[in-house]
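Just curious: can you write a single protein's sequence together with how it folds?
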Amino acid sequence: MGRVISVHNAIDYWVQINNCSSEPIVTWEPDRDPNDGTRVYKEMYCNGTNGAEVVLYAVEGGGHTWPSGKQYLPENVIGKTCYDIDANKLIWSFFSSYSLASTGETRPSQPNLRALTCMDFSPRVTFACIVVFSVKS
């Protein structure tokens, strides 16, 4: 079995690897569904090597669910589903906005492009999605 690290340790790792600013720009996402009982904040670590960024979306009050996904089990079993963001669209939007220097193509499936999505089951934040753009020379 692989090693598990916290969301913040993962962020620190990718920020360091990509030489990004260690101080994030923190913003709250719009509360698009005030009835879902969740809130989302975004941390952006910018100015990395070759324009690399590390972006964290963290859902407060959410359950062990995928943002804007199906509530596949009752809330009392897995918690609330956040409908303020759509994780699939956010991740695709992030990756599709970059071109790979070596090919000029916009294709997030290239081997030198890295992504990490992880769950953090701390009492305050139950979902965190980290997206990383990293081009290895």
